Request: fold
Amino acid sequence: MVITYLDNSGFHVALSKTTMVFDYYNVRADGPKTLDNGLVTQEDITGQGNTYVFASHNHYDHYNKSILTWQKHNPGIRYIFDNDVESKSDSIIHLGKGDVYKDEGIFVKAFGSTDIGISFLVKAEGKTFFHAGDLNFWHWEKEADDAFISKAEKDFMRVLSTLEDEGERIDVMFFPCDYRMGENGDRGAQRMIETLAPSVFVPMHFQNRFDKIEAFKEKYESKDTAIWAIPRRGAQLCLAL
Reply:
């Protein structure tokens, strides 16, 4: 398995027979247009077996309509979008919270979010993934009052409890660590790790504060959960789970 960081909450995941792309939006980069620079090219989605492209919601930093052109190069591609992502194509599967999509190559269940859209629990080739979209404990500690923070925590824990009830051991979890909320911008991530103990935790939505992610890894990595301290856009993580 090879995971490539595409910017913000975007990832390219290559399994032996399956390719998945999550929340890809940034189609610009300095230097060559290659996966190594965080850009998905025609070669990355053509002839790659089962290919699935996810959009958790329609915020600009999670969805770019250009991904729909990939179908010209890979007619078998499947798009799995939140219901509010307005696109029409026979290749698009729209999901709302609680909905399930499955075919011969993949199983997907949509979970809730504490912003707009959904989060995804995905099973492929015997591995289980969770991509949170904009699910997080959005507490904004220096801007919000106690009532706001209390409600935000309850909303977040409600989704986390639903995911915990699913009873799945998550191999790879993609989840926000957003330090715009303050020094404790990883409180939601901490809860996810403590509750679900994914085998590998992949931070996202961190505004490319790579220094913060290195510190997060040092603080929260354990024998149960490895944390990828992403060093740059286009970086790759090779896993043999």
About this structure: Residues 71 and 77 are 6 Å apart (CA to CA). The longest strand covers residues 2-7.
